[in-house]
Specification:
With about 170 residues, the protein is mainly β. It has one helix and ten strands. It has a three-stranded antiparallel β-sheet with strand order 2-3-8, with no helix packed on it. It has a three-stranded antiparallel β-sheet with strand order 5-6-10, with no helix packed on it.
Length: about 170
């Protein structure tokens, strides 16, 4: 969700945003991974530079905070890029005796080492500083996918070897 960043509306929630000359569908179709030269050289963003002001906030002529006192403006929900985490596994079963067998597995988690980006550092919403149209890093990608416990999936390729004896 894109927030206006002003807050203070009903129940202290965000009052939303106003789109000028662009529809939600048009904005959604422009979202992809962009490596930019300005405002922060080498930074990676989801929004095109044409929608960013020189300080990294959203261009107020296109997307701006709802500044009408007491008004509830548009709640703008957008889809993130899909996660692509292909896992592959190779398994070899061997029967050692009539009752005892063995199994060797090699598991490749995120086998192609694909980077999956989040819109913000810790969640898949624009609802923090980088999701606020008045924030300096509107739509900036600050982190890649990582599992919550970070022990099971750190986001990169993981290779596991598993050996089992069955009886």
């Amino acid at each position: 969700m894109i927030t206006g960043g002003l807050g203070g509306s009903v129940n202290q929630g965000d009052s939303g945003v106003i789109l000028n000359g662009i529809t939600t569908q048009s904005l959604q179709s422009q979202l992809q991974v962009y490596k930019t030269t300005t405002p922060a050289p080498g930074a990676v963003w989801y929004v095109p530079q044409s929608l960013l002001a020189s300080d990294g906030s959203a261009l107020p002529s296109v997307i701006r905070s709802c500044n009408t006192p007491g008004a509830e403006c548009q709640r703008l929900f957008l889809y993130d890029a899909p996660l692509f985490l292909p896992d592959l596994s190779l398994v070899k079963n061997t029967q050692l005796t009539e009752r005892i067998g063995s199994q060797i597995q090699v598991q490749f988690l995120n086998a192609f080492n694909n980077a999956n980006f989040f819109w913000t550092g810790s969640s898949q919403t624009f609802g923090t500083a980088s999701g606020s149209v008045s924030g300096r890093n509107f739509g900036r990608i600050t982190n890649a996918f990582q599992a919550v416990d970070s022990d099971s999936d750190h986001g990169g390729r993981t290779v596991q070897i598993v050996a089992k004896i069955t009886f």
